[in-house]
Amino acid sequence: MKKLLLVGAIALCGLSNAQMTKGDWVISGNTGLGFNAASSTVKANGESEDGPKISKFSITPSVGYFVMDGLAVGIDLGLDSETNKYDGDKTTSTRFSVMPTATYYFNTDSKFFPFIGVGVGYATSKTKYSSSGSIIDPSLFDGNLKEDGLAWKAKAGVTYMATQSLGINLGVGFDQFYTKNTYFNTEVKTTRNNFGVNVGFSYFIKSKPQKSDK
Question: What percent of the residues of the chain are helix, what percent strand, and what percent coil, each to the nearest 5?
């Protein structure tokens, strides 16, 4: 009986250690729908205005390579879509981002792997406006607007390994998108902050074949 328990413990430990080892790859996809809240602040001529609260949809595919046990570096691609109405104005915005990232998974000797990650990169946003009296002169943003700028993110959560290769993710994330533009000799700085709860999956590709995927 003792030998059986010992073998089981070793097998469990081996399963845990096998998930995120140097040389492995991970492909992930996370999505947020209805759980995300966003806020924005616009500054012009030394004055600032708080923007609307926004509900949004996002999807984030990513790929990473484990440079050491537990630590994966890679690329996150982000696609965010949002529509909001505020004080008679309506905006529809789509943002695409590319961020090099680093994510660390903590080995708990179980099927649960807490993780933290950070990333910084580039984002581009396309926004369509229709205004009926905004706090900002509608002529500044008539029709379509395209913005490019710096973006960064931080994330944390847990991955549950349903099999040796497939993990289910539950996490939270914060990201910020910063742009600076000049309209009619006025410098306008915009900072968009997003916080969300997201779910998704991760598929781990082993550098060495595994005997079983159960």
Answer: 10, 70, 20
Q: Total structural domains in the chain?
A: 1
- 54-68 and 71-86: which strand pairing? antiparallel
Q: What are phi and psi of 6, to 5 degrees?
A: -65, -45
Task: Read off the pLDDT band of 136 (50, 70, 90).
Answer: low
Phi-psi region of 176 (alpha: psi -120 to 50; beta: other; left: phi over 0): beta
Judge whether 120 and 151 are in contact, CB under 8 Å.
yes
Torsional class of 108: left (φ above 0), alpha (ψ -120 to 50), beta (otherwise): alpha
CATH code of the domain containing 142? 2.40.160.20
Residue 107 lies in a domain: yes
Given a cut of 70, is residue 154 above it in pLDDT?
A: yes
**What 8-state DSSP symbol labels residue 213?**
-
Q: How far apart are CA 4 and CA 137, in angstroms?
A: 74
